[in-house]
Amino acid sequence: MEDDRNMSPPVPSRDIAASRWKRWRGLSLQAQFEHAVVLFLTALIALVVILTLWSLALNVLAIVLHAGSIDATDPAVFQSLFGMIFTVIIALEFRRTLLVITERQRSIVHVRAVILIAMLAIVRKLIILDLASGESGELFALAAAILALGAVYWLVRDRESRDAV
């Protein structure tokens, strides 16, 4: 016996398209322009994600096929692969942030999202950083940037929670 309570009627795609078109027509010319730019950027980021995934898949395939000649435990190989994975994650998060903008009535980018993307980029850099090269200045600069971004994130989150009350 099926449980009909969990089944909701499907929303026709025509209704969704009509509501989006109605919302689009209600936007100002400036907002329509911004929306179009965001959609274009979203498409470009999707292309970058696809190309990066393809490159990552080829690199992993090369490691698997040349298992005897390439040391998969080599830190350089490890850093390269995880750097590529983080690149995909950063691009996906950036794309998601842009898509959230298109779904809202306001076209304001959340500072929190930008800070989190910046923190992801710094973490990616920390992962691929070669500590053997002795670049301690770069390591300290990245640590300072993470601390500063963390402090700004905390302040923004604190302010948003106060504004919500």
Number of domains: 2
What is the molecular shape?
flat
Q: Please provide the ordered H/E string of secondary-structure elements.
A: HHHHH
State the helicity in percent bands.
over 70%
Low-confidence stretches: none
Radius of gyration: 22 Å
The percent range for strand residues is: under 5%
Question: Helix/strand-derived class?
Answer: mainly alpha
Number of helices: 5
Largest sheet: number of strands, sense, barrel closure? none
Write the layout of secondary structure elements.
Elements: H1 13-25, H2 29-65, H3 75-103, H4 111-128, H5 136-164
Helix pairs in contact: 2-3, 3-4, 4-5
Sum this structure up briefly.
The chain is an all-alpha fold and 165 residues long.
Structure description:
The chain has 165 residues and is an all-alpha fold. It has five helices and no strands. Helix 3 packs antiparallel against helix 4 (111-128) and helix 4 (111-128) packs antiparallel against helix 5. The mean pLDDT is 78.
Provide tags for this entry.
76% helix, mainly alpha, 2 domains, single chain, 165 residues, 5 helices
